[in-house]
Amino acid sequence: MSSHTLQKFLTENLEELKGKGLYNVIDPVEGANGPTITIAGRTLINLSSNNYLGLATDSRLINACNEATKKYGVGAGAVRTINGTLDIHVKLEEKLAEFKHTEAAIAYQSGFNCNMAAISAVMDKHDAILSDELNHASIIDGCRLSKAKTIRYNHSDMEDLRAKAKEATSSGLYNKVMVITDGVFSMDGDIAKLPEIVAIAEEFDLITYVDDAHGSGVLGNGAGTVKHFGLSDKVDFQIGTLSKAIGVVGGYVAGRKDLIDWLKVRSRPFLFSTAVTPGAAASCIEAITILMTSTELQTKLWENADYLKKGLKKLGFDIGHSETPITPCIIGEETKTQEFSKRLNEEGVYAKSIVFPTVPQGTGRVRNMPTAAHTKEMLDEALTVYEKVGKEMGII
Ligand SMILES: *Cc1c(COP(=O)(O)O)cnc(C)c1O
Q1: H or E element: which one contains 254?
Q2: Closest by Cα among 130, 120, 103, 283 to 200
Q3: Any idea of the CA torsion for 312, 315, 319, 324, to the nearest 10 degrees?
Q4: Ligand 1 centre and the CA of 6: distance in Å?
Q5: What are the residue ranges of helices labelled H in 101-247?
Q6: Could you list the residue ranges forming a coiled coil in this record (predicted)?
Q7: Fold classified for 24-53+295-393
Q8: Is residue 182 in contact with ligand 1, taking CB distance under 6 Å?
Q9: Spatial strand order in the sheet of 349-350
Q10: Is the CB of 164 under 6 A from ligand 1?
Q11: Ligand 1 pocket test: which of 185, 239, 243 has the largest number of ligand atoms within 8 Å of its C-beta?
Q12: Which atom of ligand 1 has the smallest separation from the CA of 50?
């Protein structure tokens, strides 16, 4: 017999969510998460994955995964600090450091875990963190976990950041002050103002932390937002994920060697959670090797993104101010946004709606993620559907 208190809590809260239309129903994908996906037997053009370069289904990665699985088995067998560090994990970390132009790197089980791991390994209750108000949920949770004082600054507002940096460093209240930002903001596709952030950090001796989950593989010839601005030696923590453009799973921190040494002895997900599978490590190495030897996939990604953006804009949609392949299509009102996404789905396009509280009220949008794996024909078909549904609903 389960707890009555729990039962009451669950029933009340689930009913409330469902009543408000906020209960998210998950549709399983029947097969690969490629440029098209099959859901409930219907094949749809997929504009919602983070598989920017199409690497999740790349045969070179699949082969690397299979070979490593044959050699090492399916699991790492232990946490990294006992005997779960396979030579393939070390090779991945060396490759990541080379890719990021840093002295060293440490791999984790996910990008989310990186933020759980790295922030609290360095920051504590005697410190303060300046955090962009639109930072990713895992950054927010990582900051909370550290018990440092979190000071939010207005999105990409450098005057606000500077004023708050000045106040925090001159208050005498904190031992260390860090500034944390996404490299690319995932809801609007805008790029953090890293040159200005780094300049402010230098002026006030702030620790710099950039989570480049959506920038790696996309900007800076693949090496990410920090490299894009030529700041590889000016940012203390470069966080990345292996599950978006890299197409597999995992995360990493790249930086100076002593920082990485410290994370290897003090970051809790590294010490207390099993390492990524040998197959995942091997496919990540393969993906990074591909990125470091060719820009073909990035070129295709940007071509496809430009094509989709131009097409949507020409049709009269509001696509916001994205500077990256992330292409929001802003509809506004929440229920209308959800209806728009549903109609796109019925017509063969999978583009998920994103509404309050993930984005501000009244700025509901359908977010499109074009990838290198889409063909022109798929994008044309998607644009035809957008035109049809947009006109039908009076949006364009
Ligand atoms: C997606 C994302 C993460 C999480 O990465 P996972 O590898 O999927 O856990 C972390 N930070 C940011 C900024 C992200 O966009």
Answers
A1: strand 251-255
A2: 130
A3: 30
A4: 31
A5: 111-122, 137-146, 158-170, 194-204, 225-228
A6: none
A7: Aspartate Aminotransferase, domain 1 (3.90.1150)
A8: yes
A9: 36-39, 42-46, 349-350
A10: no
A11: 243
A12: 1
For residue 214 and ligand 1, the question of a CB distance below 6 A is answered with: yes
Confidence at residue 132, expressed as pLDDT on a 0 to 100 scale: 98
Question: Of 389, 358, 363, 353, which is closest to residue 25 (Cα–Cα)?
Answer: 353
Determine whether the shortest distance from the Cβ of 353 to ligand 1 is under 6 A.
no
Residue whose structure tokens are 């909370």: 144
The domain segmentation of the chain, as residue ranges, is: 24-53+295-393, 58-293
Residue type, 308: L
d(CA 234, CA 179): 13
212 lines ligand 1 (CB under 6 A): no
Average pLDDT, the chain: 96
The span from the CA of 263 to the CA of 277, in Å, is: 20
For the entire predicted model, the pTM comes to 0.96
Query: What dihedral do alpha carbons 129, 134, 137, 139 form, nearest 10°?
Result: -30
Structure confidence by residue, pLDDT tens digits, 147-171: 999 999 999 999 999 999 999 999 9
DSSP-derived 3-state class of residue 331: strand
Residue owning the nearest CA to atom 12 of ligand 1: 213
C-alpha 111 to ligand 1 mean position (Å)? 5
Q: Which two tokens stand for residue 298?
A: 């990035």
State the catalytic residues. 186, 214, 244
The pLDDT tens digits of the residues spanning 87-142 come to 999 999 999 999 999 999 999 999 999 999 999 999 999 999 999 999 999 999 99
Domain 58-293 sits in CATH at 3.40.640.10
241 CA: nearest ligand 1 atom: 7
Convert the pLDDT of each residue in 15-29 to its tens digit: 998 887 778 889 899
CA 214/CA 324 separation, integer angstroms: 9
- Ligand 1 centroid distance, CA of 347 (Å): 30
- Print burial letters for 11-27: b (CB count within 10 Å at least 16), e (below 16): eeeeeeeeeeeeeeeee
Ligand 1 atom 5: the closest Cα is on which residue? 111
In the prediction, which pLDDT does 17 show? 86
192 C-alpha to center of ligand 1: Å? 16
Q: Are 173 and 128 in contact (CB under 8 A)?
A: yes
Q: What is the pLDDT of residue 39?
A: 97
